[in-house]
What does this fold into?
Amino acid sequence: MLLVSEPSLGIDERDALAAVIDSGWVTMGDRVEEFEKSFAQMHRVDDSIAVCSCTAALHLILHALGIGPGDEVLVPSLTFVATANSVLYVGARPVFVDIGSTAAPLMSLDEAEAKCTSRTKAVILVHFSGYLAHRDAWQSFARRKGLMLIEDAAHSPGLPDVGTYGEAAAFSFYGNKNMTTAEGGAIIANSSALRASIRQARAHGMTSGTRQRLTARRPDYDVTVLGFNYRMDELRAALGLAQLKKLPEWNEARRRLSLIYRELLSIQCPSVLVPFEPAWLSTHHLMPVVLPATVSRQAIINRLRKRGIQTTIHYPPVHRLTFYHELYPDTSLPRTEDFCRRELTLPLHPKMVRSDVERVTHCLAAALDAELPVGAVA
It folds into this structure.
């Protein structure tokens, strides 16, 4: 089965994990600190904060920024549910915003402005599929409205532009991401005071960590703020250090494969829309395509699976998930709903070669020919 995503793990990762086990220190320590510095250096910032997931990262950012009950946060519905969940975690209300278009499925600036109220305090921008939102336009909007900008950069590690939009950015290292620590995440925040607040809240609000107390030879500590258990451990940090060295090469491989997809799809599957312009700044985390409205997506999925090709969807719209639909039953986002009905994610990862892309596009073309009425278009 050709998978949609597949982590690249080998001898470097195995040796890194073995070294942690041999050291006898597996909780947050020197490797976490080294990973934080290396991740920050890649993104040309002073520091970063390693955590146990991107969800934890988003929660910590909102918590540290003081967003809470009575506040509203603008979020896309075209995202993983964690984006909206993190807003609820701090007691605020997520306000779902439609995408701009099927061809550029990022949060609509015009609709975001229309949904602003006196209670709106922040915007969470999602760099969907790794394609970056327009920074200047969103920064101008945030300044004009007095809003805080937060990046959900789960799909976008490795680009220096990421983390430069506003207050902070959250990253994911889940098993299907461009680099992985199995579970894990990181935060970039521009303010040293904000970083300090997040760093303390990451570990129960304690004034010192286990490693710090060992080094200082003092067992006492204090808890001065409400905190959480969102730490990264040494095993995941060791994995991250090994993966981080390869991330630029992997992102470039994804870019090349994406361009091959675009070339072949335009010839073999002209009824299929590939979102975003080829030159759009991206980490190419996903290969989303939009099927013609006249075909059954599930039928295409089934036909490709019979040919040994996994596909998936990104995403079911969050506002239509049962939990959120019951909370906000009147939410209607027609462009998001149309995109999510027709979107199909094709395999894309650095282990693939050109022949894999050729196989996928050939099989997709055959599946569409079997399903499309004669003369149908997108």
The longest strand covers residues 120-126. The mean pLDDT is 95.
